[in-house]
Amino acid sequence: MSGRSEPTTSALAQPLRPPSPGRAALYLVLLVLGAVTAVAGALVQSAWFPGGLLLALAAEAGLCLGAGRAMGRRGGAVAPAVGWAIAVVLLTASRPEGDFVFAAGTGSYLFLLGGIAVAVMCATLAPVRQPDGGGARLGK
Fold first, then answer.
1. How far apart are CA 96 and CA 69, in angstroms?
2. 8 A C-beta contact, residue 67 and residue 77
3. What is the spatial distance between Cα 14 and Cα 135, in angstroms, rounded to a whole number?
4. pLDDT in tens, 28-43
């Protein structure tokens, strides 16, 4: 052999490992909190139209951004966003009795589309897993 060592690969190139049981439980709690936020937001946005809509979207943004920052990973922001989306999809379906949560109005559509936009923005702004080691620049 030539005495050369094998090149080291980046931590980002390594396969993903499943989360620890504690982290998985925390993701599940965040998913449920996202669903609770969606239900509360669906009720508040129609009760106080302009202010309730802004309050509901701000609550979702605060939950997703706060969870992402607290967990230090993008999954922390994605878990409540997924819970929010699942709850909203279940709330849009009408029941056999004819009951529904969302009326066909501007406020409901703004809540649905605005909530999706907020979830995407929060997941994009969440911290990404970084490799261990010192910072390095190319060409150094």
1. 41
2. yes
3. 18
4. 999 999 999 999 998 8
Distance CA 10, CA 133 (A): 10
Name the nearest CA neighbour of 69 among 17, 122, 119, 10. Answer: 122
Cβ within 8 Å of residue 82, ≥6 positions away: 31, 34
For 83-129, the pLDDT digits (tens) are 999 999 888 877 777 666 777 778 888 888 999 999 898 888 877 76
pTM of this prediction? 0.75
In this structure, the chain runs to a length of 140
Q: Are the CB atoms for 70 and 40 separated by under 8 Å?
A: no
Question: Pick the residue with more confidence: 4 or 35?
Answer: 35
The C-alpha angle 44, 90, 21, rounded to 5 degrees, equals 95
Query: Is the separation of the CB atoms in 92 and 31 below 8 Å?
Result: no
Segment (H or E) for 59 = helix 49-71
